[in-house]
Amino acid sequence: MTTDPRQAALTAATTPEPWDILVIGGGASGLGTAVEAATRGYRTLLLEAHDYAKGTSSRSTKLVHGGVRYLAQGNVSLVREALHERGLLKRNAPHLVRDLGFLIAAYKWWAAPFYGIGLKMYDLLAGKLNLQASRYVNKAQALARTPTLKQAGLKGGILYFDGQFDDSRLAITLMRSLEDHGGVTLNHAPVVGLIKEGGRVVGARFRDDETGQEHEVRARAVVNATGVFVDDIRRMERSDVKPMLSPSQGVHVVVDRRFLPGDSAIMVPRTDDGRVLFAVPWHDHVVIGTTDTPVPETSLEPRALPEEIDFILRTAAQYMDPAPTRADVRSVYVGLRPLVKAAEGTDTKSLSRDHVIRISDGGLITLTGGKWTTYRRMGEDTVNRAAAQAGLPERLSLTAGLKLHGATTQDLPDHWKVYGTDAEWVQTLPGANQKIHQALPYTEAEVRWAARAEQARTVEDVLSRRLRALLLNAQASIEAAPRVAAILAEELGRDQAWQAGQVRAYTDVAQGYVLR
């Protein structure tokens, strides 16, 4: 067993000195805000109830993009901002973001010129940070890039470029970047109440889930960045507050790479329900999604509806040959979108993906909406507001040019690339050549690294977010759980009962990702 790093983080988090900025929530918006604050030199603490990117932030379509469909909706400012941020993120985290070609297949004579014009506008909005220019491809070129595209009636298509990334690995990279710049961050530390004095929010109470002990922390500014759960925190200040959000869920299925063996993704610009659908190569698998289904309440583990799975597979079958069936699905995952409420009767496809910042009468700063691509801009805007409200010294934002932890342009092999410059250190640990399961690329050394350097505390933390086993092959990840539990127990000083409990808990969660 190595020295467990959690106690040092807990001691640092519970210092009696007030923090400049306390961020509640360890997803895209919370981590972006905390890194922004820490790099400006503000004393920054982040508290995460479960684990970094546990919710929506680990369940995206894995794209760093401007949003082609937002352009079709006329939201030019959102697209321009997102394309700018896409370029910055590729520059600042080259180990996590890569260019990917997307093919819009044309089966009608008018389709290629119609979509081609729109995508030229997309290129122009990206300006000097554009990746590659979009272009027309003929039938033969389209099939060379996507050999499993349905050939009957195919005229050609439009090829355009966006970014692809690993969402929860970016979250872990931001957590490490926060630590690199003096911030303190703690997971499995749910906020259970806000501290108010004279009607102002001046801190929070949180529980250490590993001991059950509660602690108080104080801060000059408190930011609620809990994604689809922001209303829960807002109700801690005022129980009668009106909900901000109208959440919807997006479902994705993951299948083997043989269904999309080329070097490009497929983008369907308009499905039967008016959305776009992607089939995207990712970690030697293919992610297909997504849906947009309003949900009445939020959940940590939302589940796909049978009709959503059917919709994705039915739409994929219109473009792919062979097309995946239910039997081919390795994993199903669901993310909830924190869409800000609009007028009654507005469907969730039409709600804004812009981020929103609201400050309550008691000074609680709530950030919600947005998407991974614009996480940095969300953080910058939020810290500007927080610093002004708290009377902190005005300091320039540095994150537009900030290289994130591990950043490297070195071409590392297969899945090691997401570690960036840490990869060589991971490979010095025991088990670097021992896989945790034959159907997965991950090694025992990575489990040890997750515990020692990346704050992994549970089997789920490892198999779902430090490694992406749960999303790539849910059943294989269940089979790997006992070995992962044993390694974690060795690293963290846990007993056999803890291991057994971890395997049970993980299996319960992972069964929801297996398509029956």
Automatic annotation (TrEMBL):
Keyword Nucleotidyltransferase found: no
Protein keywords: FAD, Flavoprotein, Glycerol metabolism, Oxidoreductase
A single MF term (Gene Ontology): glycerol-3-phosphate dehydrogenase (quinone) activity
Swiss-Prot/TrEMBL GO biological process terms: glycerol metabolic process; glycerol-3-phosphate catabolic process
Organism superkingdom: Bacteria
FAD dependent oxidoreductase domain ranges (all copies): 20-374
Keyword Oxidoreductase assigned: yes
Cofactor(s) the record lists: FAD
Annotated Alpha-glycerophosphate oxidase C-terminal domain residues: 406-497
UniProt-listed Pfam families: DAO (PF01266), DAO_C (PF16901)
Family: Belongs to the FAD-dependent glycerol-3-phosphate dehydrogenase family.
Protein name: Glycerol-3-phosphate dehydrogenase
